Amino acid sequence: MTHANGSSGYIPDDAAFEQVSYEITTSRLKPGCAENAIVNGFLNLMGQH
Amino acid sequence: MSPNRPLLQVLNYQVSGDLAGASSRYVENYYRGKPEDAPRGDAGAAIHLRPEEITENAVALWTSGAAGDQNPISLARGSDFTLVHSLGKILGEEAVRIAGAIYSTEQARIGGKQEVVTCPGRKVAPGTLPRKEYKWEDSDPVSIRLSLLTINDIALAGVSGEVMTMIQEHLKKKSTSSHPLW
Q1: pTM assigned to the model
Q2: ipTM of this predicted structure
C-alpha cells in the first residue's frame, strides 16, 4: 500500500533513476538508497513478527 | 448482521494516485450500491456491483498499490464517464469473484510494526527553462515510514510515498510471508 502514513513523494527504484521523467525529476530522493532501505526495512519488520 | 457477513473488504489496486484521496469514496459508494452519491471527476475505476451482490453496511477500504510509474488508464477530461464505469465494472466483478472465495477463521494472530528509514535528498538545481539537461544539488534527507500489519501469514506492507513497481517486485521476491500484499 502506498501513500500511507506520510508523504515522501515519488520513490523510484534504483534503475529508474536513469530515466528523465516527471516522476524522477520531482522525486526528492537521491539515487541508490530508497529501494534497498525499503526492502530491507520490511524484511527486518517481518523478521520481528 | 450474520457473524459470517463481511464488515470490510480491503481492495488493493495498482492505479495512479489520481484516484487517491477524496475520490476513494467513489469506490465505496459503488460498493454499497449508491453510485448516485459517488463524487465525479476522476478517470479511475469504480466498484459497480449488481443489485444482488450489494452488501449493506460493509465498507470497501481502497488502498493504492505501488504505481508510481503507472499513468491513469484514461486521461480523458470532461463529463463522459463511460470508460470509468466500464473499468469499474471489470474491477468490481473481479473483486466480487475473489470475495466469493474468502474463508473465515475463528483464530487469527494480528501484529503491527512500523519503522522510519531515511535517505539522502536532492533537488533540481536552478537553471534556465526549458532545461536541456538536469543538474542536481543536495537537499534535506527524506524520511520514509514503513508500516507492517500482519494477520497470520498475510503481510500488509505500507509506505509513505508513491512507490514504483519494481520496488514492490523486489520485496515480493525476498519476502518471508507467503501472502505479501503491497
Answers
A1: 0.79
A2: 0.97
